[in-house]
């Protein structure tokens, strides 16, 4: 763990970021007292990828009507659920 004064941090910010990037924890001190800690962010190793299943799944055209009869028979529902 390395300690820098606020003045050093303002003068050499890239040095602090470089040390943190190498895995070092950096303490910032004001008037000799520790006030902040800089450490490496735990980032995911692999970024999320949207759409990786595109084309692999198929939603049936009657998806919103699946199980309507079964639900009506279980719960005795009438009206819009009992229609076929």
Summed up, what is this model?
The chain has helices at residues 6-11, 13-21, 68-75, and strands spanning 2-5, 26-30, 33-38. It has 84 residues and is α+β, with helices and mostly antiparallel strands. The chain has a domain at 2-38.
Write up this protein.
By secondary structure, the protein is α+β, with helices and mostly antiparallel strands. The protein has a domain at 2-38. 27% of the residues lie in helices and 18% in strands. The chain has helices at 6-11, 13-21, 68-75, and strands at 2-5, 26-30, 33-38. Strands 1-2-3 form a 3-stranded mixed sheet. The N and C termini lie far apart (70 Å). The mean pLDDT is 84.
Question: What would the keywords be for this entry?
Answer:
single chain, 84 residues, alpha+beta, three-stranded mixed β-sheet, 3 helices, 3 strands, elongated
Detail the topology: elements first, then pairings:
Layout (H helix, E strand, L loop, with lengths): L1 E4 H6 L1 H9 L4 E5 L2 E6 L29 H8 L9
Parallel strand pairs: 1-2
Antiparallel strand pairs: 2-3
How much is the average pLDDT? 84
Element order: H for helix, E for strand: EHHEEH
**Got a strand count?**
3
Principal-axes geometry comes out as: elongated
Helix content: 25-40%
Radius of gyration: 30 Å
Beta-strand percent range: 15-25%
- Main pleated-sheet profile: 3 strands, mixed
Low-confidence stretches: none
Arrangement of strands in the largest sheet: 1-2-3
Number of helices: 3
Structural class designation: alpha+beta
Q: N-to-C terminal Cα separation, in Å?
A: 70 Å
